[in-house]
Design a protein that fits this description.
The chain is mainly α. 52% of the residues lie in helices and 4% in strands. The chain has helices at 4-10, 15-34, 44-55, 65-84, 112-120, 133-148, 153-158, 188-209, 225-239, 253-265, and strands at 164-165, 170-173, 182-185. A three-stranded antiparallel β-sheet has the order 1-2-3. It is elongated, with a radius of gyration of 23 Å. The protein starts with a helix and ends with a helix.
Length: 269
């Protein structure tokens, strides 16, 4: 039987998510064992009993509906794992849904031309110590993929050198646990920064961190949040110089993140 933790990592979940899912499964296991149930045979009614237990007050505290929903979702994945390993033929949690969870609507999102302005203004020249011009070059390329192709950290992490075809002006994005593989057209504005990065700056970064893999973006860590954070920090710094009504003035980390997340959900044209 494949280890559940390994299964989650193979599905490309982050370390934090894996830790959370394992904790949720451990609490569930402790409960069903106390009831003399077994994860391979437990039925829908028993799973519903556990969900109702989660919703009951404990020591004067009640779990929010959002937290209960997250735990139910994590257990659905656990049962999918058991199905994948041929220990079950069904998912008893599949039809259990938590109602009443409020959804957050995205307001004040940036328009595409505003995102494009942020990309254009991202600095890569005249970078002085202690900042590295090669890092700035990489971050601008990453920002371009975020803005024009709507990539998230998972997609960026999966990119290899061979996935980029400058002659055709395309980038291939491998499949993930939630998306199919796809080939997207590059914007003409991306070509010059990409060429600079491929011909010069990528090699500098490889030597700097001694990472000579085929990854398009060699990193000492697989976390792309550092790149995102750097871009957002630049935008926020710029916002101090502009009136509230301007693009910089109304850009916050939240607005930028939600805008890019929303673009990710749109089908490529």
């Amino acid at each position: 039987m494949k280890n559940y933790e390994n299964f989650l990592f193979e599905q490309d979940y982050s370390k934090g998510t894996v830790k959370s899912y394992l904790r949720t499964q451990e609490l569930f296991a402790k409960w069903y064992e106390s009831k003399n149930y077994d994860c391979e045979t437990i039925e829908y009614k028993s799973c519903l009993e556990y969900v109702k237990k989660l919703q009951k007050p404990r020591k004067g505290k009640v779990l929010s509906k959002k937290t209960v929903k997250h735990q139910v979702g994590a257990l659905k994945i656990f049962f999918n794992y058991l199905i994948n390993e041929n220990y079950r033929g069904d998912n008893p949690m599949e039809s259990i849904n938590i109602r009443g969870v409020k959804r957050t609507l995205n307001h004040n999102l940036l328009e595409f031309d505003e995102l494009e302005d942020l990309y254009y203004s991202y600095p890569i020249n005249n970078i002085t110590f202690p900042y590295c011009p090669a890092v700035a070059s990489r971050n601008k390329v990453v920002t371009g993929f975020m803005v024009y192709q709507g990539m998230n950290a998972t997609a960026l992490k999966s990119l290899k050198y061979e996935h980029l075809n400058i002659d055709k002006g395309t980038i291939y994005i491998p499949s993930t646990r939630t998306t199919n593989s796809r080939e997207l057209q590059l914007s003409s504005q991306q070509i010059a920064p990409l060429l600079r990065y491929l011909e010069k700056d990528r090699e500098i970064l490889q030597e700097k961190i001694e990472c000579y893999t085929e990854d398009l973006f060699p990193l000492s860590s697989d976390k792309f949040y550092i790149v995102h954070k750097g871009f957002c920090a630049y935008v926020l710094a710029e916002s101090l110089q502009y009136p509230r009504s301007s693009i910089y003035g109304r850009t916050s980390l939240y607005v930028l993140y939600r805008t890019l997340s929303t673009r990710r959900l749109r089908k490529p044209s």
